[in-house]
Amino acid sequence: MSATIIDGKQVASEVRAEVATGVAAFVERHGRAPGLATILVGDDAASAVYVGGKQKACAEVGIQGFDHRLPGDATREQLVALIEQLNADERVSGILCQLPLPGHLDGVEMTNLIAAEKDVDGLTVGSAGRLALGLPGLRPCTPAGVIRLLDHAGAQLSGAEAVVIGRSNLFGKPMAQLLLQRNATVTIAHSRTRDLEAVAARADVLIAAVGRAEMVRGRWIKPGATVIDVGINRLAEPPAGRRSSLVGDVCFDEAFPVAGAITPVPGGVGPMTIAQLLANTLQAAELQAG
Ligand SMILES: Nc1nc2c(c(=O)[nH]1)N[C@@H](CN(C=O)c1ccc(C(=O)N[C@@H](CCC(=O)O)C(=O)O)cc1)CN2
């Protein structure tokens, strides 16, 4: 038996359709659209693609986009001034600062300047604290998107052994918190974890976010496990028999015959990040409107 493929593009399009309906209702009630301001500092090619995708997605669901670009040598003061301006702008319901920032700027410090009610990335200290305490709030987009995919796949989370490989603020830590809220038994594994393979092999739900192409091999996977691949690694050319040069952190061809369900790369977790951002922007607008 081989795995069911969890189609992130399809689930993301369902989320986008729900958001479009919600935005239309918001416009009807308030006579204005929710607004999302994106900030891109520098000219990192991948970040520019992601920000472009976010702006395009806003337009498609009726959210007003504000696309702010600063040069790669922008000063801390310039970025602080922009965030403060957007915090005060009533047309802006949500603000996100695309990560990573250039090395001279501190992503944690800058993100944390975003007003709590506009923190649609869910990355400020306040949002992270609310998540850790189990209080309602805006949740980081990729982990929230993964929960939606797991629910779509019918994964049983309560009581499940969940292993998250990766401990970033952007993904691993909030992912673990969301799984804990769903009563999973959660392990966060990382580069210093002893016998990572054995830890991974315990998982009913295995989530890989390590940033190393195809590191998770088929033998690491418990038969029937749900495998979520958060990695996006661009190879010089597509692997044999594939059209895309993007691969995940999981060796898909080895995992597919062992897993019960698995996300592909591309077309798995990635599309959920932007869909969830749209949902968070609508949620933020609704909360601000009272
Ligand atoms: N402030 C933030 N910065 C970053 C975040 C974030 O959530 N907030 N996440 C990532 C990048 N990211 C969004 O910003 C993102 C990554 C991947 C995708 C996506 O749709 N991937 C596609 C493949 C696209 C390609 O061809 O490269 C897929 O997996 O199918 C969307 C958004 C880091 N920074």
UniProtKB/TrEMBL annotation:
Catalytic activity: (6R)-5,10-methenyltetrahydrofolate + H2O = (6R)-10-formyltetrahydrofolate + H(+); (6R)-5,10-methylene-5,6,7,8-tetrahydrofolate + NADP(+) = (6R)-5,10-methenyltetrahydrofolate + NADPH
EC number: 1.5.1.5, 3.5.4.9
Domain Tetrahydrofolate dehydrogenase/cyclohydrolase catalytic: 6-121
Keywords in alphabetical order: Amino-acid biosynthesis, Histidine biosynthesis, Hydrolase, Methionine biosynthesis, Multifunctional enzyme, NADP, One-carbon metabolism, Oxidoreductase, Purine biosynthesis
Domain of life: Bacteria
InterPro entries in alphabetical order: Aminoacid_DH-like_N_sf, NAD(P)-bd_dom_sf, THF_DH/CycHdrlase, THF_DH/CycHdrlase_cat_dom, THF_DH/CycHdrlase_CS, THF_DH/CycHdrlase_NAD-bd_dom
Tetrahydrofolate dehydrogenase/cyclohydrolase NAD(P)-binding domain residues: 140-288
Pathway in which this enzyme or protein is active: One-carbon metabolism; tetrahydrofolate interconversion
Family annotation (Gene3D superfamilies): Leucine Dehydrogenase, chain A, domain 1 (3.40.50.10860), NAD(P)-binding Rossmann-like Domain (3.40.50.720)
Pfam families: THF_DHG_CYH, THF_DHG_CYH_C
Residues that hold NADP(+) according to the record: 166-168, 232
Xref: NCBIfam families: PRK14186.1 (NF010783), PRK14188.1 (NF010785)
Assembly and binders: Homodimer.
Entry function: Catalyzes the oxidation of 5,10-methylenetetrahydrofolate to 5,10-methenyltetrahydrofolate and then the hydrolysis of 5,10-methenyltetrahydrofolate to 10-formyltetrahydrofolate.
PANTHER family: C-1-TETRAHYDROFOLATE SYNTHASE, CYTOPLASMIC (PTHR48099:SF5), C-1-TETRAHYDROFOLATE SYNTHASE, CYTOPLASMIC-RELATED (PTHR48099)
Family: Belongs to the tetrahydrofolate dehydrogenase/cyclohydrolase family.
Listed name of the protein: Bifunctional protein FolD
Annotated source species: Patulibacter brassicae
Higher taxonomy: Bacteria, Bacillati, Actinomycetota, Thermoleophilia, Solirubrobacterales
